[in-house]
Specification:
Strand order of the largest sheet: 1-9-6-11-4-3-2
Number of domains: 2
Structural class: alpha+beta
Oligomer: single chain
Largest sheet: 7 strands, antiparallel
Distance between the termini: 36 Å
Strand content: 15-25%
Length: about 240
């Protein structure tokens, strides 16, 4: 497995103001509720999945498994599919997302602001971006996604890249807003999972990762960008052993 500074997860809780962003949770939840129409299924490439059960992974095609495509389409379209899947839990094998600033050129450029375009509803999150800018985490950032798990659903074990000759160069922050969403890295050799702790984390996405089923609906936010020199310095200082006087 790939390590960063000798660790599977880098926790940033002591480097940023996590209390302020957690205080935003009721407001962020209101944003998700108000913009339910933006929720779409997460899609995975079969070669990036640990599981071999891929028959129902593309949730946008899930209705075909029951040969009910024509009937379903009389009532719902792609943007409403997540609501249908809430009542078809046997098909809801993955998680969902709101893609606030999708990439417009190529997904490998999603960390660059110039290669992403904010949707209109993104303007409703001014307070969140004000908090993010004040943390001085990024020199610039591009993609912003809200990952959503409905009740009793988890995130499939997957990795973001196929070429494992070198570690992923992604720089991002993952913010978890619920203690019920258990983000993990999976070690295929030992068949064990290492779980993230705290609120704000980073990990190498070339490692297998996912989250277990949550007893309650929950969400997390991932922001991709380029770490600022100031934040890298704070990370380096946090890794130094404390002096014993």
């Amino acid at each position: 497995m790939f390590l960063t500074n000798g660790q599977l997860f880098l926790n940033f809780d002591k480097l940023i103001d996590v209390d302020s962003v957690l205080n935003m949770k009721p407001w962020l939840s209101a944003f998700v509720a108000r913009n339910f129409h933006l929720i779409e299924p997460c899609r995975y490439h079969q070669k990036n999945l640990w599981t071999q059960d891929t028959a129902l992974l593309d949730l946008s095609q899930a209705w075909q498994a029951k040969n009910s495509g024509d009937q379903v389409y009389k009532f719902v379209d792609n943007k409403q599919l997540h609501r249908w899947l809430m009542f078809e839990q046997d098909l809801a094998v993955g998680n969902f997302m709101i893609n606030l600033r999708p990439w417009v050129t190529h997904w490998t450029q999603r960390h660059l602001a110039a290669h992403c375009a904010a949707i209109a509803e993104d303007a409703q999150l001014t307070d969140f971006y004000h908090w993010l800018d004040n943390q001085k985490i990024f020199e610039q950032y591009g993609s912003v996604k809200i990952f959503i798990n409905f009740q009793h659903t988890g995130t499939l074990t997957h990795r973001d890249y196929v070429d494992l000759n070198e570690p992923s160069k992604d720089e991002f922050i993952w913010l978890g807003f619920s203690p019920h969403k258990h983000l993990y890295i999976f070690d295929p050799e030992s068949q064990t999972k290492v779980y993230a702790t705290g609120i704000a984390n980073y990990f190498n996405t070339n490692n297998w990762h996912g989250s277990g089923p949550s007893p309650f609906a929950c969400y997390s936010i991932r922001v991709d960008g380029i770490f600022s020199d100031q934040f890298k310095q704070r990370m380096a200082e946090s890794q130094r052993p404390s002096r014993v006087s």
